User: Fold this.
Amino acid sequence: MTRPFPRQLPDALGLQVPIIQAPMAGISSPAMAAAVSNGGGLGSLGIGAMQVGQARAAIRQFRDMSDGPLNVNVFVHRAARRDPSRERAWLERLRPEFGRRHAEPPEQLREIYTSFLDDEAMLAMLVEERPAVVSFHFGLPHPRQVDMLHAAGIHLLASATNVQEAKAIETAGIDAVVAQGHEAGGHRGVFDPDAEDDRLGTLPLTRLLVGATGLPVIAAGGIMDGAGIAAMLALGACAAQLGTAFVGTTESLADAAYRERLFGESAHHTTMTRVISGRPARCLANEFTRWGAAVTNDRVIPDYPIAYDAGKALNSAGKAAGETGYGAHWAGQGAPLARGLSARDLMAALKIELAQALRAAT
Assistant:
């Protein structure tokens, strides 16, 4: 296949094709990541919700299946600000939804995820395991963490939703930037969830970051097929990151209800919501997002990931009662284009489509 696209990052990682599978916490599996890397792309694992032992085991499971490069993603969110009165009020607001499922809300909420900023054990494990790439979501690591990971020979990526974040990423010494458009599924990578969001789409954001920084730019958001990848390369991206495209694969950890919604009418109605986790995230329309539409003041929602503790409890209560509409069914606006293939077959299709699109453009 001809390669008329920027090669600096793909070459450094030994990629045959400029395709990165998004590191979707709770969805991407070692088998999915291995299939992508075996297909010439960059497979990824989202370990932000894992304990160190779980993360190490997932990395080693990947290595049992692939000799290719691996991207390991961590969350670098600011520590949650505890507000007991706000948390109690939130649980009371959710109580009727729990009651509809014959359940009680938890008595109190927990900060269920540790930020990588405060996780020395996770840092030590990554330095020891040395995945090819470590990527950051929600912000930037400490300079010492950057130095230690670089010293271990690890390439570093970070997500940006605007030019200011991308410039901060460049200043921090990160190797490449992921341009996350507003149409992307899952959590927005905004550094400050309380600041005004410019809501830039993938197309303008990619072009802006290519011009505003000297970093390789990876386009992410709404990209579902080879034609979409080719379009991002034409804008100056060195690679495209696809998430929702892989949610419906056989290696995905998405449950049956999630898959049913992805391949159903809900795929045509994604919405940005904060009520599920405490941070803005794009989700397939479901009962939780419809309930959340009435929450017009974000300040009543506890901080991430404390609010997520309530969201997960409500989802568990719903499932126990046979209701699957309270899940975190993250998906981007390209969801109607999802295909129910294996990750291996999806990679093969993407490569064929990309080659065709590149030939048509020459």
Observations:
- The longest helix spans residues 343-361.
- Residues 1-77+113-252+338-362 form a domain with the TIM Barrel fold (CATH 3.20.20.70).
- The chain is about 40% helix and 15% strand.
- Confidence is low (pLDDT under 50) at residues 1-5.
